[in-house]
Amino acid sequence: MRITWHCDNALTTTTTGFNVVERKGIGHPDSLADLIAEEFSRRYSRHGINRFGFVPNHWVDKVALIGAESEVTFGTYTVRKPVTAYLFGKMTRSIGAEALPIEDLFTATVEEVLVESVGRDILLYLRTVSENTAGVGADHPASFYRPAEAGKSGVHGKNEVANDTAFCNAYAPADPVDLLAIDIENHVNSPAFKADLDGLGSDVKVMIVRASDVLETTVCLPVRPEAAPSRQEYRALITEAQDRLTAFVEAHPVVREHPWLTRMSVNTKDHGQGAYLAPFGTSLGKGDCGLVGRGNKANGVISSRGGGGIEAPAGKNPMHHTGKLYTLAAEQLASRIHGELGIPNAVVLVSRNGDRLDDPSFVGVRTAYRAGSRDRTSIEGLAAETLSGLPALSERLLSLSPIERFRDPALVLEV
Fold it and tell me: How far is CA 315 from CA 43, 121, 334, 335, 375, in A?
């Protein structure tokens, strides 16, 4: 494996210039689509291992959520058309004569993710649809999606090949604003924050703009209509939430470590009689839609610094799909380079369909300063270890709850 090197002094810039970071909350339709796709893939994979001894081939990174058609006002709402969850993708339908319970697994996944992320009320207005496009093509044997029998290994075999041509990238350390955005969203969606603020939903969005030493945070907080019978009660709830958020940000260790002037804005669209009222506490309850790949990247945020490329890891096969495995391997390698060598860096991994999974066609490493021969040797060793550890990463993905990973993106680095 050959590494292409580049020195980029801008990797150390976290206090000058500017940075913009977004974090979509756990109840955002795009977050929900990612969580459902990832949890379905995990359950489908585990069912295959437990029942047949291997992960059936699948690729379900096209989950779509179509929001409810609703009429919403202070104090109440009426749902005219329910939420629809669509499962689009290629899935092995059966192993020999035994059918896989695709529809049952998908329905159970949707219901459990929504209950955990949004609440139980939404289940009264929900339908699910599965669309399987798996067929037989010249690039795979007929048994790829139509295996005749069980008995394959549930983990990587030797010479496992990549199932896509893709590039994935990551950086380390995390920008301080990345960490702040994650902590704000987790705090807003914590039981402690909502204990005295009854009616706040989970479809939170956090946008942070740091320009030199000014930090401006904008937070969108949904309110369940039944919790705000009037404009005055809605406004009182938002004002109290904003005061608490301001105090949280000002006391946060990241802010205290930097000479930043902080500003906080909440629900900036609230003009005149406007209000962010959302059935079930999510814009999915009032017509917004969610799609896999539009949510947070693997590091938990969407950053102007980049990271994660355009890949949508959620729902991709955890055994050989590089859009998932290389995204997370790049995160692991960048984190190890910084954690073990103290070098700020960015990593790019490129796969070509059909190449060996543990041997990327391109490995690029940008370092904050010119790496000497000793550092390069160490980084080459870390890269080899990270890529040889892909089977352990696959198993880690099958054991970790996607919701736990959403709340703490660093969990997947602990392989």
Answer: 11, 26, 23, 24, 36
What does the block give as tokens for 289? Answer: 């839609």
Q: Which domain holds residue 386?
A: 3-15+164-174+296-409
Q: Are residues 185 and 169 part of one domain?
A: no
- Roughly what angle, to the nearest 10 degrees, separates helices 390-399 and 322-341? 110
Judgement on whether residues 183 and 168 belong to the same structural domain of the protein:
no
- Model's pTM, two decimal places? 0.95
Decide the pairing of beta strands 126-132 and 83-91.
Answer: parallel
For 150-165, write each residue's pLDDT tens digit. Answer: 655 444 445 689 999 9
Structure token pair of residue 252: 């946060």
- CA-based Rg of the chain, rounded to a whole angstrom? 23
Chain-centroid distance of CA 342 in Å reads 26
The answer to whether the beta carbons of residues 237 and 228 sit under 8 Å apart is yes
Residues 6+ apart with CB under 8 A from 374: none
Asked if 212 and 301 sit in the same domain, the reply is no
Tokens at 227, concatenated: 């919790």
Residues 256 and 183 reside in one and the same domain: yes
